[in-house]
User: Fold these one by one.
Assistant:
Number 1:
Amino acid sequence: MGKILDGKAFANLRAEKLKKQVEKLKAQGIEPYFCVINIGDNSASKVYVRTKKRRAESVGIIQKIYQLPKTESEEDVLALIDKLNADPKVHGIMVQLPAPEHINVNRVLERISPEKDVDGLTPSNIGRLWQENHFVEPATADGIMALLDHYGVDLEGKNAVIIGRSNIVGKPLAALMLEKNATVSILHLATKNLSEYTKMADILVSAAGQANLVTKDMVKDGAIVIDVGINHVNGHLVGDVAFDEVEPKASMITPVPGGVGPLTVEFLMEQVIKLTRRANGIRE
Ligand code: NDP
């Protein structure tokens, strides 16, 4: 039986601490202020943006949403980012992805000031992450690392296998796990035989976005399984892992929902506070 890694409870615990940090900042006259730019009407994005706003408000962070029409020109998005970069009351900026096709996402992300880059997706922050000189970490990856640490998992010398190589999950998580001396493999759609790699995993992370991708025959006995996937199947939210059959083989496993999802939102707020502190010269 796999021990359930309760991301929701851990996120709530962290949120209580964060609330106190926010109160301290406010007592010094500092109002943490976070801007989210959402372009277009992707329904999942709108839900994510609202979830973040609720979480921000619950810990005392001001979150402003810039909801732009899907026809918004790239120039106008860049001009908005320039304005927010220059505004001293703004501590964090993020662009909700995906963006409409006419928007060059790399150009838009690069425009965000690295000092206000909540998602850690500007080239300089990605570079710093791989140089083990982090300024800010992508929230999902940071949350997974903290969850493993919370449950006493030591990555040193372990085989970590990550399915998915996106800039927001797979790659930053690989950098963070490598830094903890895990031996990291990143799998993707061109990987020939997934299970050949997954069976070697002491820690298996799936961030592919495909329901039932990870089945029990792909997992070694006693593995730690982290399910990042969010999939909607017959009106239900499920991960990438066939939970019922994998859970008995795993030593630890995250559920969906209630695993990685709540951590992402919590750690996003933690990045906002980290950037707010730095902007005000407050040491961690
Ligand atoms: P992307 O679509 O950007 O990346 C998916 C990655 O998975 C790609 O690298 C892709 O390979 C790989 N992949 C997809 N299917 C397979 C497969 N069958 N075999 C091997 N590799 C595969 O997604 P994201 O990283 O943005 O998100 C991944 C999942 O995690 C989604 O379900 C998303 O909703 C969820 N998510 C959940 C979060 C949370 O808080 N719980 C936060 C962020 C994301 P290739 O590169 O070759 O295309």
Number 2:
Amino acid sequence: MKNVQSILAKMTLEEKAALCTGASPWTTTPVERLGVPELIMSDGPHGVRRVPDVHAMAIESLPATCFPTASCLASTWDVDLIHKMGEALAEECIALNVDVLLGPGANMKRSPLGGRNFEYFSEDPYLAGEMAASIIDGIQSKGVGTSLKHYAANNQEFQRFSISAEVDERTLREIYLPAFEKAVKKAKPWTVMCSYNKVNGTFASEHTHLLTEILKDEWGFEGLVVSDWGAVRDRVAALKGGLDLEMPGPQDRRVKAVVEAIRSGKVDEAVLDESVRRILNIVFKAKETPKNGTFDVDAHHELAHEIASEGMVLLKNNGLLPLKAQQHIAVIGRAAENAHFQGGGSSHINPTKVAVPFKELQAQAPNAELTYAEGYPTDNSFRQDMIDQAVTLAQSADVAVVYIALPTFKESEGYDRQDLDLTEQQVALIKAVSAVQPNTVVVLNNGAPVAMREWIDGVAAVLEGWMMGQAGGAAIADVLFGKVNPSGKLAETFPIKLSDTPSHLNWPGGAGEVHYGEGLFIGYRYYDAREMPVLFPFGHGLSYTTFSYGNAKASAKNFKDVDGMTVTVDVTNTGNVAGKEIVQVYVHDHESGLVRPEKELKGFAKVELQPGETKSVSTHLDFRAFAYYHPEYKQWITEDGDFEILVASSAADIHEALTVTLESTLSLPCILDKESTVREWLADPRGKAVFGSFYAQIEAQSRKIFGGGDERYGNENAIGMDIMDMMNDMPLVSVLMFQQGALTMPAEEMVAGLLMQAHSADQ
Ligand code: BGC
């Protein structure tokens, strides 16, 4: 590695400012006289979108493997497989001369309407964090960099360049940041990309709290922060906030603005030097990996195939699947001939080849008779003639397989979906076909949940094929014919209808703001809390075999938070074919100081089992599995008490429950202040120690003033209430105000004195 410090010392102010702004759409500014080369970046995240001339904003890119998109990747729940995909992506970067691949995206799926949800992993931060860390580690293990994006709270496309995500600190810490935090701490991405939007009123590109305090200082991020393309409004504010590199370039005005800010003393040169140091580190690190050679097109296509078959989710099956290869199959829907395997926008890949679903079916069933009807047009028009043609085919076949792709005018980067629906034509098609053919299978290609209630009861099976990557057509055939036993499970809830969804009343915002009013309760956290039925729960996915669970054990019944504990469970394949099960471990807190979700995913494992085979599966649950973020302590805290460990095959299918008891090793600072309530004083051990003995006096005095405690009324007073139920939630100072006459000093002074005693232990 070059001596970055000595190069930095030789750079002029102009050179330093120029390095912090791109030289072209995809490259940084080289400093030739000092031997600083340019860094080449390309999109991501599920393929390499390398344009032939990196100095131009071209649209057409060089051929590269289009892997399945993140919705499908997360549904594999297979971190090792995702790691392999990362390695393959890196090999393609090396062959295509790319230093940093712009991905993965670790944003949460706040609403299924998010236009870009297909590029994101999950509604659950734990699962998304594991996936992001694994793919980053895979890519970077080969000396190619990544860009973890879009940091942060970029959960919609509507007004994504300007809207302010209004989100409280606890929700940020527990829902929107943990996937980034895990990926940063575990996999150390070379770069993190800030998002376009504002967070609580400040552009993410200028957000000192997010970029400097949390990402760099708290999480120890050592790489560089790059702007999303065009995310910087005020270059100087961004520099001060912790944004190192602005993209794309060139932008002479920005360079001049930085020079000017340093010259005028508005920004300390040390701030610029810190960004330059970070950029130089990454530039030189990247150049340690020579970029040349070719990549194995066929092997990567095969890997994309394997991932697609692991990530597809069999949502419904009345026993029709797997199909028998000798049947007469009516293949309906234009997605059978025109595979819909990726989404629109910056992630769009020019695939090396494409597996056509129809041909793949044919290849696996040479003795079957396959017929084809297009079923629906490319646009949003309604074509009864196409439906009629499909119905005629379906009637004469043994089985109908209907390939439905959600069109790009309904789902893409850049705009959100307006509803959860397929097109009117697609719904009518499925209904008409299944009305004449009970053996109807629907294969879906989409990046996020669609509503199915209008037609699901009439069909025999539904396979969620996602945006399945270029080889996905073959994976569908594998699953339909049982060559692959499906093992994917949903990384997001499929709701029954749009108005059921967590952010429905706060989506997509307006007047410049979107309020994250549902707080912690997105995805299954919300449906759990509302006890609301869903179409398919988080973690759901069917197999051609069955599994049983037993013998769940905790490594310790009583444990310290810092030690965590390990859960072990035996899983048995009770069916006739080999299969894979995804074991999910959720944690439920019996009692907590602040409201918590009913349960949260904190561990998982995917296990392959032969018929009759049993394997023991273990997951370690660490401190964070039991902790929650307390906005007043400004840290993750644990509390003594019982937790339930739930071993499940989906969020709605819990097989084993273990009760364990945690001992917190934290010694928390006293957070009582002059507005603390009586109940808060009693809940705090130091508060209780100094104030507890007065409580009886306060109660007696309160009852004397307001009545109650009288034999005639029990605890109620003449105004029909228990006064202490109200007073306990009043600030101590307010309670004392009512008792002023009985006090030897003013209420404020008394509280100040108690506070001093309570806080003295912290000094
Ligand atoms: C997208 C990023 C992408 C960048 C470069 C932006 O519009 O939000 O995800 O990496 O463009 O193409």
